[in-house]
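[job 4471] stage=fold_predict status=RUNNING
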Amino acid sequence: MIYDIIIVGGGPAGLTAATYACRAGKSVLIIEKAAFGGQITWSPKVENFPSVVSISGAELGDRMMEQAMEQGSEVELDEVVSVEDMGEKKRVVCLSGAEFFCHAVIVAVGAKPRTLGLEKEAALTGNGVCYCAVCDGAFYKNRVVAVSGGGNSALQDALLLADKCKKVYLIHRRDHFRGEAKLVEALEQRENVEFLLNTSVTALLGDEELTGITVNTDGKERNIALDGLFVAIGHAPQNDVFASLVELDASGYADSGEDCTTKTAGVFVAGDCRKKSVRQITTAAADGAVAALAAVKYIS
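[job 4471] inference complete, writing structure tokens
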């Protein structure tokens, strides 16, 4: 079978693209390597998605998935390892060895968490070093943790952890946070949250388990005893597989405009893997709609 459109990535961008493409009468296959719904499923509460006052990220992801499948999308849980441009056809190869063919591909792979790049970080990941407060926060109930980062993700992680943990250090290398003022204000009201500004994490302490961190504040170093460190310093795009088909910028993001097209006819990009100034659920969904309609037009 040759699908009209194969969508690589099952987050908000990919699922929205699937819904739009199916409603345009096209056959669609979504290939996702991890969890359908994407990173939004990590969020305990979403309050900035139009028409929804408050919803958990997991439920929102489930709803988007249900909608895409209700419209006729097919799904595969697998990892795409290569995409070959064969002109009017594209060949998509997965890690399992499965191969699929289509007329158009939409790349909606999102981005993965960035690391601090410190010694022992890989070894201590899962043993005190974490990248998802929603996933791992419950393991640190009544314990001492830190969050490294200054954007909305870091602030939201700190709020979530403040509800569970004895103490939360919020560490940011600048003198002010980049996230929303309302989130900062909410954290300022928490007695168990301490801000460490102009501060960087310089070392991880512990062998088999994290026991603490070394931080540098204005040139002065000190150790802080911790049970857990949550890293929330942004994400890196996962576009390497598509580098021959899609122009990438210096940071590895797809260097495509709002039309979501690429240098390869029949290949489109959508969501957080694309170069953009704002990365939110709404912008990912918008990209999904644009990419899907562009793909439909290309096929027609």
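[job 4471] summary: The longest strand covers residues 99-107.
[job 4471] exit 0
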